Amino acid sequence: MDFVSIRIITGDVARLVSFYERATGARATWATEDFAEIGTPGATLAIAGTRTVPLFAPGSARPAANDTVITEFLVDDVDRVHANLSGVVDEVVSGPTTMPWGNRSLLFRDPDGNLVNFFTPVTEAARAKFGR
């Protein structure tokens, strides 16, 4: 089994896609006006509108209602990314902080309130884990 993507359901696909394009520097591939994907070497971030929910199971997902998942992106230099996100991110939850497990992390919320973590491995063990 391969983990290939995570999907965010939103009430405003264009707004959320634009945010993630600016935050990641990656361009989205649009399938329809209700569905786009931002691909990375490790996985894909899918962004879908509320009109796609009934295709799976009506009422099974609600936009901007996530309080449990953190979407994470490995970046080369989290401090540089933090500086570059000025004016892009409205709510920084925690500025760059070195975690006990060896990653330097920047935690913020996307426009729908979903938690996003950009991180850089900084200890030898963390760098080895991610092949850095």
Strand line-up of the largest beta sheet: 1-4-3-2
Share of residues in helices: 10-25%
List unreliable stretches of 5+ residues.
none
Mean pLDDT comes to 95
Rg over CA atoms, rounded to whole Å, is 15 Å
Shape: globular
Kindly state the number of beta strands: 8
Give the class from helix and strand content and strand pairing.
Answer: alpha/beta
Q: Report strand %.
A: 35-45%
The major sheet is characterized as: 4 strands, mixed
CA distance, first residue to last residue: 25 Å
Number of alpha- plus pi-helical segments: 4
Topology pattern, helix = H, strand = E: EHEEEHEHEEEH
Structural commentary:
It is a single chain. By secondary structure, this protein is α/β, with parallel strands linked by helices. Helix content is 22%, strand content 36%. The strands form two sheets. Strands 1-4-3-2 form a four-stranded mixed β-sheet, covered by helices on one side. Strands 5-8-7-6 form a four-stranded mixed β-sheet. A hairpin with a 5-residue loop joins strand 7 and strand 8 (115-121). The longest helix has 12 residues, at 13-24. The protein is globular and about 45 Å long. The two termini are 25 Å apart. The model has no long low-confidence stretch (mean pLDDT 95).
